[in-house]
Amino acid sequence: NYRYQIVEYRFTKVNYQSSETWQQATDYLRCNPVFYGQPRYDHVILAMQDGDIFAKLLFMFSIMLEEVCHPIIMVKPLDGEVIVQDKDKDLGFYRLCSGLMPTELFSARDIIRGALITADKENAEECFVVDTDPDMFCRLNSLRSARFDMYHVHE
Questions:
Q1: What φ, ψ does residue 3 adopt, rounded to 5°?
Q2: Where does residue 57 rank: exposed (0-12), middle (13-18), buried (19+ CB within 10 A)?
Q3: What whole-number percentage of the chain has pLDDT above 90?
């Protein structure tokens, strides 16, 4: 007897290990078309085989197959090619833009933590990661050094 069930979620809690203190921390993430009258689609960092990526949550659901729950997220990946500008390097900005795929499905277990992403007012296609806490600051420092080192190689 084959049975399945699909359930939508608009809120999830993600526990992660802080890169600063090595203690457990928690992020509360929302993916809701009407959160207090406004749409709210949080951003996340996803663990991929070839490196972490940032993405915008678009839809969260789980599929129950043969009594096993599979949590799934649909995201807009922010893993597109970015041209590092001098001001990014000088000010420590970590710039992102959309990838080639408009949406992708991943396991919700790939979420490392939430991320605060803000639009670049000068370029609608790009956005910035905001290092809101010491853990994000540590994570971005390693990403910045890798990206800015690549920037020097191409000069």
A1: -130, 140
A2: buried
A3: 54
Ordered alpha helix ranges (H), the chain: 86-91, 134-153
Residue 64 identity: M
- Residue range 25-61, pLDDT digits in tens: 999 999 999 999 999 999 999 999 888 899 999 999 9
Question: Which tokens is 131 given?
Answer: 């290092």
Query: DSSP letter string over 10-39?
Result: SEEEEEEE-TTT-SEEEEEEEEEEEETTEE
Residue 93 DSSP symbol? -
Give dist(CA 85, CA 93) in Å, integer. 9
Burial of 28 (0-12, 13-18, 19+ CB in 10 A): exposed
Query: 56 to each of 3, 9, 11, 24, 28, how far by Cα in Å?
Result: 31, 15, 14, 23, 14
